Amino acid sequence: MHGRLIVFSDIDHTMMSNTGDLGEVPYMIDLLESAGIPVVLVTAKTITEVINLQRNLGIKKWFIAVIESGAAIFADPGILPYVSGHMRLAGKELEYVELTAKMGLEEMDDKAKRILRERNIECNPPLVNVWDLSGEELSRITGLPVEQAKLIPTRDYMLVYYTPDMECKEKIKNILESRGFYVGLGRNFVHIGLHKGKGWAVRWMIENVPKIMGKTSIGLGDSSPDIDFLEIVDVPIIIPHVTGPRIRLARPDYSIALYPAPRGWVSSLREYIVRNYSGPVFV
């Protein structure tokens, strides 16, 4: 019965708190996998960051991750219908599909900055590429341990700029999206690429990956880059921040978890499954 479900989930502030706390998330993932329910990670993180987190998250049976906000999908061999390539990372064999136009990051950086200069966009404090920040600086910005923060600049498909100036970030988003870029806004960072975002990647999976097609999809997210995929899943759930929910959906049938991450992630999934399916495992 439970095997008819699949969970699509953001990580930061959705499964994991702003201090890196996972609470009962690994235990819940173990229950989900025991019931035949895969958890697909949908994140702005790189594949290296996600693989480093995999053991802490407790994912064992299926590894499927939409990385860098939808630029590529990585999975255990045999899951994806076709692949762009294969790789071995941290002793793990992976296959991947790339969903982005080809352009080197330095070339993309030059192009994006040239467009912003032409439009006289200046942020306060100034926009900084995370390449130019140390692990210690990124740790202070994000609250992550230094070793994790050092992985933030290691992108394969996206630029990441830092500025807390939200008004400036909104201007950047409007300008660059009009020029064909994908732009995702976080609390501190601007993610820029040449793909179509998390929603497009999740829809592609729902329509093309045999192990996912036909399942009832549950989506959990907390911020604006998550809106696109929350709009297309069957059951959308917003995880609030400590200060309250920050996003809304256009569709009326979404729910908001009672608690921030990680407690809200665990309790929302448990409540949905207990309410809609028989079986004592999640009670």
Can you describe this structure?
The protein is α/β, with parallel strands linked by helices and 283 residues long. The chain folds into 2 domains: 2-100 and 197-276, Rossmann fold, CATH 3.40.50; 105-193, Putative mannosyl-3-phosphoglycerate phosphatase, domain 2 (Threonyl-tRNA Synthetase, Chain A, domain 2, 2-Layer Sandwich), CATH 3.30.980. 32% of the residues lie in helices and 20% in strands. It has helices spanning 25-34, 47-57, 105-118, 135-142, 146-149, 166-178, 197-208, 227-230, 263-276; strands at residues 5-9, 39-42, 64-67, 72-75, 85-89, 92-98, 128-129, 159-162, 182-185, 189-193, 216-221, 235-238, 255-256. It has a 9-stranded mixed β-sheet. β2 (39-42), α2 and β3 form a beta-alpha-beta unit. The model has no long low-confidence stretch (mean pLDDT 93).
Write the layout of secondary structure elements.
Elements: E1 5-9, H1 25-34, E2 39-42, H2 47-57, E3 64-67, E4 72-75, E5 85-89, E6 92-98, H3 105-118, E7 128-129, H4 135-142, H5 146-149, E8 159-162, H6 166-178, E9 182-185, E10 189-193, H7 197-208, E11 216-221, H8 227-230, E12 235-238, E13 255-256, H9 263-276
Parallel strand pairs: 1-2, 1-11, 2-3, 11-12, 12-13
Antiparallel strand pairs: 3-4, 4-6, 5-6, 7-8, 8-10, 9-10
